[in-house]
Amino acid sequence: MIRVPIKQERENFIEPEKATEGASCYDVWVSKIEHKKNNYVIAYLGFSSEIPEGWAAELKPRSGLTKTNWIMQNSPGEIDDDYRGEWQMRFKALPTGICPITNQLMYDEFPFKKLSAGRVDAVYSNRLAGKALIAKLGLTNINYYQKHLDVKYYIGLSKVNTKPNLAADYMNTISYMLDEGIIDNILSSYTVFRETGSREY
Questions:
Q1: Between 20 and 30 A from 76 (CA), which of 86, 108, 121, 163?
Q2: Residue 191 lies in a domain
């Protein structure tokens, strides 16, 4: 095994990591997405490297990409030993479509994966967002610990595009649904509100 020094190039960089001990490759995460055209994007991975002479690295898309109409045309992409720029992957849609590559959700998921693996002791998160990610990732050993502070959420309506009577009707309906327990009943059907496991966050 060789060691490849890497250098952080972006603030939201996530270090490449193997998902399991038996994994043959390291997972990488997107730090920035540049939309060049409707059907062409560049995904920047947030780091550069110094690959030892005589070696090269390969970049391959995840298998989930096959469920979309997007492809990585030069797959597997090759990083030569003399390349010192930021690693990147380029994707194209056939013919066009909404790009399925994202950086924010994967970046949010990463701390919870580390918590589940015992690599960190706690994660600071919005309670509902945290519960949603725990459910999505299928993590059964993490549990909500305690509230740090109260955050108020507001519903904003455009004064330009919303008529006054429509705004009033909307707010009255929301108030009625809250008072009658309708909203609580709807939310209770989602796994985001169900407690799981034992590890704290």
A1: 108
A2: yes
Count of structural domains within the chain: 2
Q: What φ, ψ does residue 155 adopt, rounded to 5°? A: -100, 120
For all residues of the chain together, what is the average pLDDT? 81
Q: What are phi and psi of 52, to 5 degrees?
A: -55, 150
pLDDT at position 102:
60
Residue-wise pLDDT tens digits, 145-166: 888 888 787 888 888 888 888 8
Residue 99 domain flag: no
Measured torsion, CA atoms of residues 104, 68, 90, 8, in degrees rounded to the nearest 10: 30
pLDDT at 88: 92
Rounded to a whole number of angstroms, the distance between the first and last alpha carbons of the chain is 35
- The CATH number for 18's domain is 2.70.40.10
Same domain, yes or no, for 85 and 10? yes
**Domain assignment of residue 36, yes or no:** yes
Predicted confidence at residue 163, as pLDDT, reads 83
Boundaries of domain holding 28 = 6-93
> Which tokens hold the place of 168?
């009033």
What residues form DSSP beta bridges with 44? 32, 88
* Structure token digits, residue 61: 């898309």
Classify the C-alpha dihedral 12-18-19-24 as positive or negative.
positive
Buried b (16+ CB within 10 A) or exposed e, 122-137: ebebebeebbbbbeee
Is 51 inside a domain boundary? Answer: yes
By C-alpha distance, which of 149, 148, 114, 139 is closest to 195? 139
